[in-house]
TrEMBL record:
Residues annotated as transmembrane: none
Name listed for the protein in its UniProt record: OSBP1 protein
Source organism, top-level taxon: Eukaryota
Pfam families, per database record: Oxysterol_BP
MF (Gene Ontology): cholesterol binding
GO cellular component terms listed in the entry, alphabetical order: cytosol; perinuclear endoplasmic reticulum; plasma membrane
Gene (name only): Osbp_0
InterPro entries associated with the record: OSBP_sf, Oxysterol-bd
């Protein structure tokens, strides 16, 4: 219904980014720049997007520096380890894939997001 006014998106596409309660603080639907954009506050959204991108760059630089330091000291460096997924090679295709390793739904049930990084 009314698809011509909604760019002919499906119901799923139109609601995919709707906020949901009780999700991880890292859920992309909580991105402050995105929320500002969706409320029509374009200038604020642009400033917020720049802040988030710089925060991400700073984290990347810190990890790179830690990796160099570990290498210089002859230590292993694991780098970033995703909370709920792990990278594996697909046995059939040989391609690198991400496989759910558990923990998200348990954290959501308990509302314990203490292991989540502060990404926003």
């Amino acid at each position: 219904e009314n698809a011509e006014n909604m760019y002919f998106f499906s119901d799923l596409a139109l609601t995919l980014n709707e906020p949901e309660e009780r999700v991880a603080p890292t859920d992309s639907r909580l991105r402050p720049d995105q929320r500002l954009m969706e409320s029509g506050r374009w200038d604020e959204a642009s400033v917020e997007k720049q802040r988030l991108e710089e925060k991400q760059r700073a984290v990347r630089r810190r990890r790179e520096a830690e990796a160099v330091e570990a290498l210089e000291e002859g230590k292993d460096y694991e780098g970033y380890i995703p909370l709920w997924f792990e990278r594996k090679v697909d046995a059939v295709t040989g391609e690198l894939i991400c496989v759910y390793k558990g923990g998200y739904w348990e954290a959501k049930d308990k509302q314990d997001w203490s292991t989540c990084p502060d990404i926003f």
